[in-house]
Amino acid sequence: MRQNKKLKNFGTFLLFGGPTLFIFSAVIVIPFIFGLYLTFTNWSVATGDNTFVGLGNYVEVFTDDGFLTSFWFTIKYVIACLIFANLFAFFIALALTSKIKGQGLLRTGFFTPNLIGGIVLGYLWQILFSRVLPFLGDQYGWAMFEKSWLGDPDKAFWALVVATVWQLIGYLVIIYMAGFASVPKDVLEAASIDGANYFQGLRKIILPLSIPSIIICFFLTITRAFLAYDINLSLTDGGPYNSTQMVSYHIVQKAFLSNDYGAGQAEAIVLFLAVALIAITQTYILKKREVEA
Amino acid sequence: MVKKNNSLAAILKIIVLYITLLIILLPFLIIVMNSFKTTQKFIESPFSLPKSFDFSNYIEAFQSMNFMQGITNSLILTVGSIIVIVFFSSMTAYLFARFKWKINSILFFCILSSMALPFQVLMIPLVILYGEMDLLNMRPSLMFMYVGFGLPLGVFIFHGFIKGIPYELEEAAFIEGCSRLRTFFVVVLPLLKPVMVTLIILEVLIIWNDYLLASLIVQSPELRTLPLSVFNFFTAYSVDYAPLMAGLLMAMIPVLLLYLGLQKHIIQGIVDGALK
User: Fold this and answer.
1) Which sequence spans correspond to the domains of chain A?
2) Are A155 and A137 in contact (CB under 8 A)?
3) How far is B85 from chain A (nearest CA, A)?
4) In this predicted complex, what is the ipTM?
5) Which of A149, A270, B105, B144 has the most CB atoms around its CB within 10 Å?
């Protein structure tokens, strides 16, 4: 009888969990473990070589100027996106939260860029930056736009930031709005009756109470920007003169163009650890500032 | 006095909001406007209105991009993967939520933790392993991987919801002699509809817009998804902007149409997805 029950349970387990566990192992678990192993070898498909090289690949990661440059570039990009996307989104969401006409329409509109995939989005901005903005620069003598931003390393950085922020704003607006909805109206009213002016109310009440949504938005911005690939490929393609290669771009090049799988995988692991570390740290720091309404 | 001030501020706020919206939507408007002109006209005056609705750019993009093939491939992959994700992940979530065995909580923990892994960590091993097995450049392999990446989110979302469903409903079915599997499909699955919508929306956006995984797995032109077709179209046309803009719009239209029809659900789905 007992044996029977065990057998039946095992059957249920296989029936309900089997397919998921099989696919999960084949797509995530095994590749992840194999990937860790890969970082200690100099795997090459062409030669069939897979000698054990110890920590050699990791040493290579931290001594490869190309990788370090792309890493530093990515950090700057993440910080710029973090600041601008959240600043814009926060204030747009704040303005949208009060009862105004066309709130739904505005929210829908702001969110639209977020539906577009990175490849299409990057090409759209490539056309704007290489043709439309220089046209404006010529026409009205705006020196800033006279030459395409994509031809200048410093400006190409900002081109990437502009396109990314443009896409992210609507996404963050929605999350901030959901957060504001949970700030009790009477707390705000009490503040204004007490004679608190708008900005005091913002700093002392709304901001501390929105920490949970700020944490989520920062987390989303950091992980998205850190791992960006599509927009990098389609908007700048790493150029001009390889000045805008982000980490993911560098990994793809290393692994699939130079066929240096071990080093590419080591870079990917380093990227993963860096994202995890930064995302967890920001959550930890902000969590401490959280207050209850 | 205070009241008047407030309403003035409110009007100002609305104006600023609409101007911001216009700026955000401007890139779309510029592309729409110029997709009806020639490349020459676009370069000379990108802000002029088109003289007529000339669809020749669209026809050219439609043919050169192999649009029908791209959209068919994207549809097959997106719909196929999502159906499998919904069924398998809801069944596994049910197993984890209803049978509190030790092995289940360990597996559930593993599946949840895997969501922290960025795709970049898995792409190189995937290409090597599936390459060794000669499974690259096949649509089923790509679909299999989309399912693999989608299952954890599904298990997570369904698990949270199933925990809240009273067990009595299922008990009634057991008493009537229903098997576990039948009970799941007849009693539990229909109750999952609200979260199913969330999962489907999130997965549609992820799979439909994916470029990197598809570009690594698929090489043959006839297997290209829409993002891959756009990429190849741009590489081939480089500066012939007019058809390129028409192509971009055609690539956007399917998702935009979906958004138009389901915007409330989509926004709700995105909020739910992000807050989890």
Assistant:
1) 59-287
2) no
3) 9
4) 0.90
5) A149
